[in-house]
């Protein structure tokens, strides 16, 4: 058994375990020295965060130690030579010592910033020449942190386990080995398997549904965003934030003028009444449901012959409040949750992938939850998938219902989630057990690549011209089944239903492949008892996903200030009749007839989509007209508000 104990893989693993333990001790030390900042943390919750932090430690440390691991596992018989091991140990000591140092330094820095240091730190202080002096002064002023860091580095060095040396070039990890071919085959297999698991560890988990974990995933283990400082480690925060685009420093207007042009703080001034029966709110975010797929919105396509793939949604839209031009604020599923539920658009980078994803945010759930609504978010994928669980928790949902809560793998599609039909039935049944009023949201999943439907429905729905089309037909059927169930429940008549999509997908008609068409998704408000005058009132302006939250709150008479980049589109005309989104590398703003594109410095496009449906004629020469100038000012103000408030953690009502 001696060769197993001293095998390079075992030695490398033991050294990795050592630094993992040091990071865990550092996390505990941070909490103990900052307990006053976390008065609500119980022992069990601390354990939850400590355990959750191991994921982020593993990712960061596998990154930092990748060269060391490679040196230890290369199938070379010289790896036990003394000089070779001296090189390897420095590739272990230096990165890990630096990681411990920055992790401990952040214990001090976080007291002022309220968050883990990210790559933005280097941009913020790149022109400062006195950083060395500041660091030295801080090291003396916070001597207990400095001593702790030095002690942890000393432990790292002293307990480091080197690979036992050997004479000559023989590798005693395989005594008596006569077949050298077997030696190299075995060690090469160990290297390949180890590299595979290192990559999995860096990503944060197995499976197609697992995205590389980011800063926002820490919210999954916290009750408040500031607790992410306990879960995360600084090397991870720096590495992950360096992968995203940093928000530029833009200043188009002075603060007073900025607030006059565009302010995301909505003051209801006591106008809210909350007197319409405390309605339930149900929000559907439909995976990939492009507006193109819905016949109700496309009577003019294919010379009037177009039917679409959503007969149920067509019938529902006919009795709902809908809009001629409705747009997504992003192009990915991870863009949709902040846009729909918190009225925070995607600008430059998906919010939950930015260094600011641990900011305090509000949502429909947090606003209504504070008024007594029971809230829950539903997504049939494995819990934690796409970062939805973390965001739902951070923005105020009481409960999360995923694949774990559904608890029946027989209905799992094998790729992403529980089939939509079964999960939407679970969604309806669960709401029937909730106390009214309630606010829930569900994110469907089946209409996602690889675009499969349950075997019993093969050939049932129109195949269309793209593989996604029969999936759209299936999910439309699942929605019909859901509403058939909901109509039998007492809460149905007391509920406002909102349906939209996360983004578009697989667009086939030229009108939907433009910079405008790629963002067109449905926005549907259905209340079985909506006032006919409200439902049929003409509205000559575009509507975006960020308009959903303020519209819901205003519709039910919410009586407190709230934060939203959108505006009410149900009871009132929009004060600023625009929708803003980001179509990398340009920002876009839409009015009732114009689309303006802006790269942050200059206007790159101006199109009249009423007269130019395919957006072939750039009208930049008309920028001196009043409407384009007003649109540009509003867009610049939105960008400045977004970036400034994101950096300053001001995404809620102060």
How would you describe this structure to a colleague?
With 654 residues, the protein is α/β, with parallel strands linked by helices. Helices cover 41% and strands 9% of the residues. β4, α16 (388-394) and β5 form a beta-alpha-beta unit. α3 packs across α9 (180-203) and α18 runs parallel beside α19 (468-486). The radius of gyration is 28 Å and the shape is globular.
List the helices and strands and how they pair.
Blueprint: H1 2-5, H2 8-33, H3 43-64, H4 66-73, H5 82-113, H6 120-124, H7 131-141, H8 143-158, H9 180-203, H10 228-231, H11 234-242, H12 255-261, E1 265-266, E2 280-286, H13 311-317, E3 326-327, H14 333-342, H15 364-369, E4 374-379, H16 388-394, E5 399-401, H17 403-406, H18 420-431, E6 438-443, H19 468-486, E7 495-501, E8 523-526, H20 532-536, E9 543-544, H21 548-555, E10 562-563, E11 579-583, E12 586-590, E13 594-598, E14 603-608, H22 626-647
């Amino acid at each position: 058994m001696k060769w197993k104990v001293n095998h390079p893989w075992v030695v490398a693993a033991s050294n990795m375990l050592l630094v993992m333990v040091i990071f865990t001790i550092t996390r505990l030390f941070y909490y103990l020295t900052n307990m006053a900042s976390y008065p609500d943390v119980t022992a069990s919750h601390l354990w939850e965060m400590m355990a959750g932090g191991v994921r982020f430690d593993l990712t960061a440390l596998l990154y930092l130690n990748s060269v060391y691991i490679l040196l230890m596992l290369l199938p070379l018989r010289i790896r036990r030579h003394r000089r070779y091991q001296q090189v390897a140990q420095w590739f272990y000591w230096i990165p890990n010592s630096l990681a411990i140092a920055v992790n401990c330094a952040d214990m001090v820095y976080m007291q002022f910033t309220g968050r883990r240091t990210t790559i933005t730190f280097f941009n913020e202080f790149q022109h400062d020449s006195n950083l060395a002096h500041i660091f030295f002064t801080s090291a003396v002023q916070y001597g207990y942190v400095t001593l702790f860091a030095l002690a942890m580095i000393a432990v790292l060095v002293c307990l480091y386990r080197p690979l036992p040396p050997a004479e000559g070039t023989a590798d005693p990890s395989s005594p008596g080995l006569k077949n050298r071919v077997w030696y190299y085959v075995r060690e090469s297999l160990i290297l390949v398997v180890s590299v595979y698991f290192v990559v999995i560890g860096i990503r944060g988990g197995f499976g197609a549904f697992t995205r590389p974990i980011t800063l926002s995933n820490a919210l999954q283990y916290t009750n408040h965003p500031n607790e992410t400082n306990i879960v995360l480690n600084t090397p991870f925060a720096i590495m992950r934030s360096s992968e995203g685009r940093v928000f530029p420093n833009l200043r188009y207007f002075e603060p007073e003028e900025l607030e006059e042009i565009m302010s995301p703080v909505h003051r209801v001034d006591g106008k809210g009444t909350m007197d319409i029966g405390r309605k339930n709110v149900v929000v559907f975010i439909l995976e990939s449901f492009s507006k193109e797929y819905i016949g109700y919105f496309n009577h003019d396509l294919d010379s009037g012959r177009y039917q679409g793939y959503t007969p149920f949604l067509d019938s529902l839209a006919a009795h709902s409040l809908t809009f001629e031009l409705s747009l997504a604020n992003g192009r990915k599923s991870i863009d949709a949750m902040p846009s729909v539920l918190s009225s925070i658009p995607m600008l430059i980078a998906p919010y939950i992938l930015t260094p600011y994803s641990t900011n305090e945010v509000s949502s429909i759930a947090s606003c209504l939850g504070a008024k007594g609504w029971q809230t829950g978010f539903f997504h049939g994928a494995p819990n934690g998938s796409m970062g939805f669980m973390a965001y739902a928790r951070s923005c105020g949902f009481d409960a999360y219902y995923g694949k774990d809560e559904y608890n029946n793998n027989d209905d799992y599609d094998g790729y992403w989630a529980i089939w939509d039909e079964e999960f939407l039935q679970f969604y309806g049944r669960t709401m029937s057990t909730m106390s009214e009023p309630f606010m829930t949201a569900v994110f469907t999943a089946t209409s996602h690549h690889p675009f499969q439907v349950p075997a019993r429905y093969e050939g049932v729905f129109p195949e269309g011209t793209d593989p996604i089309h029969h999936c759209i037909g299936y999910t439309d059927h699942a929605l019909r089944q859901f509403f058939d169930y909901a109509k039998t429940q007492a809460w149905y008549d007391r509920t406002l239903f909102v349906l939209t999509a996360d983004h578009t997908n697989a667009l086939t008609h030229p009108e939907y492949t433009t910079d405008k068409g790629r963002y067109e998704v449905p926005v549907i408000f259905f209340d079985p008892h909506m006032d006919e005058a409200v439902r049929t009132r003409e509205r000559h302006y575009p509507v975006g996903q960020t308009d959903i939250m303020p519209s819901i709150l205003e519709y039910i008479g919410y009586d407190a200030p709230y934060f939203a980049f959108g505006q009410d589109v149900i009871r009132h005309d929009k004060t600023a009749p625009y929708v803003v989104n980001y179509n990398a590398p340009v920002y876009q703003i839409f009015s009732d007839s114009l689309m303006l594109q802006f790269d942050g410095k200059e206007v790159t496009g101006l199109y009249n989509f009423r007269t130019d449906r395919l957006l072939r004629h750039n009208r930049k020469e008309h920028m001196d007209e009043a409407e384009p100038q007003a649109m540009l000012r509003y867009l610049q103000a939105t960008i400045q508000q977004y970036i400034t408030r994101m950096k300053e953690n001001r995404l809620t009502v102060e």
